[in-house]
Amino acid sequence: MHKAYKISILYLSLFTLLLLVSGYMIFELKIGFEAQRALSYYMGDKEIFTVAKSNSGILKLALPHIFGFALLSMVVLHFLIFTKFRNRVFVKVILYTILTAQFFEIFSPFLIINISEIFIYLKILSFFIYIGLIPIVLYLLFDSIAQIKFR
Amino acid sequence: MKFTIIKDLNQDTMMKPILSGLFFFTLLYILSDFFVKYNSFGLFPHAIHLSLFGNEEEFLNPINEASFLEFWHVEIFFIMMIVFTLSTVYIRLSQASRSAIVVVNIIMLSAITSLISLVFSYYFSSNFINIYVVTFFTWHILALFSSLYSLKKLYYA
Fold first, then answer.
1. Which of A3, A9, A11 to substitute to test the interface with B, most B CBs within 10 Å?
2. ipTM value > 0.95
3. Which of A131, A145, B72, B87 shows the greatest Cβ crowding within 10 Å of its Cβ?
């Protein structure tokens, strides 16, 4: 890997953080982090005249996120191969946790409206796990990039 | 990232058309973005101001916060993927020359600044719209340049 690629990876990290911030703001504005408020977003609320989400409505919202999450995770996580942490157990734990969290972040709304309202906690938890772990990965990249000897 | 380890990209019969395709579609995306922005969100300060804040005299409603954040979110994703992919190939084809690194830095910084100034325009002050417009054009023009330059390097180097 050439030294110049450090620049691209570092800027990619900044864009990723910006993407997480925008995702956080949208989640906070539209769904909310309190269980009751988030539940009313999915199940509807007569008092604020919102209707319950349907399976097709959730799928429509999930569709771009399935691709987006997959691409973002692949791009960010594959750089871990170039770090000194590549064979460490904790990195593999982070990797699988991120992939699991993103799966539930996208698909837990189906569980909420079809099975049980209790899955609202899974939705909120998986969101926080995802946006909490990605910056840790970015830190690991940053830490390694600063030390790798480039051509 | 396979292209980073192939020695002579412009001699490689597989990577050459693949990268040509990437640059061709990047050019199309950037040019289309100008037209789409011009006809929707706005390309110049006055039109962007109208989109963000509306105008009572002309009965134009401002964009609502959720729509704005969704627009911003999608913009971040697309821009990051485009400038990241483009910059890595451009660096590779220009043999990481000093001028190429300067261009990449300007593209990245102007793209990030355009995104940040856009959200600042909405939440803090409409003065940031001018910064958004300048940085938006800066990264678009330099991305066009680096795509064309990379195509030239692929075929005429």
1. A11
2. no
3. B87
